[in-house]
Specification:
216 residues; alpha+beta; Arc Repressor Mutant, subunit A; Umud Fragment, subunit A; two-stranded antiparallel ribbon; 5 helices; 28% helix; 26% strand; elongated
Length: 216
């Protein structure tokens, strides 16, 4: 069996299994329709009208559009706003995870049913207390945090030793690791070019870093 045949067979098994789990596979027709709607929403921040969906996804009849929308609604990807326009459902931003990937030597592909993940659900524990902050400077590169990265910060006044925190020192925000030195809290950079911050007065923790992302 060729590599291409093997990939097709694997994709077919995944597609069959995912249907039983209520997962819309990217290779299915509904998966392609959903991806097109996701791209449209990413660009315009609204979903198209029923009339425009047919032209957008290549469905010729109103009945076909209505059936597709109903299927995506049933799976939680779409829902109706009070004005009857479409809006993203609870699962609209889910992405499938088929397996882990080794960073070392290649590992064989296996036919596991993909899990699904909402990026916001994964990164944000407490939405009402979470803010996104863009990183400036390179004092935390040793922790894998680089200039331009976005850190997800849960606003809280107390951090634990070892947490990466956003702290307020001399009325300025700084991103550092919270450590203890001789019984008092100090802020340690993760870059040897920068000194440890040992506040002379009070130091206030603004929030604790819960995650990070960047665009390559």
């Amino acid at each position: 069996m060729s590599d291409r045949q093997g990939r097709v067979t694997l994709a077919t098994r995944l597609l069959t299994a995912e249907r039983s789990f209520g997962i819309v596979h990217p290779m299915s027709d509904d998966g392609q329709y959903l991806a097109t709607l996701q791209d449209y929403y990413s660009k315009h921040r609204v979903l198209p009208s029923y009339a425009a969906i047919g032209d957008l996804v290549g469905l010729r009849s109103k009945a076909s559009v209505a059936e597709m929308v109903q299927r995506l609604k049933a799976e939680g990807f779409l829902k109706s706003a009070p004005d009857r326009r479409l809006k993203p459902g609870d699962r609209f931003f889910e992405r499938s995870i088929t397996e882990s990937v080794q960073a070392g030597t290649p590992n064989p592909v296996f036919d596991a049913v993909p899990d699904v993940l909402g990026i916001d659900d994964y990164l944000v524990r407490n939405p009402s207390r979470t803010v996104l902050i863009r990183v400036k400077g390179d004092s935390m590169t040793g922790a894998g945090i680089h200039p331009g990265d976005i850190v997800i910060v849960e606003m809280k006044r107390i951090g634990n030793v070892g947490d990466i925190v956003v702290a307020i020192v001399d009325n300025e925000f700084t991103l550092k690791r919270l450590v203890k030195e001789k019984g008092r809290f100090v802020l340690r950079p993760e870059n040897r070019a920068y000194p440890v911050i040992r506040p002379l007065g009070d130091m206030e923790v603004f929030g604790v870093v819960r995650g990070m992302f960047r665009r390559y």
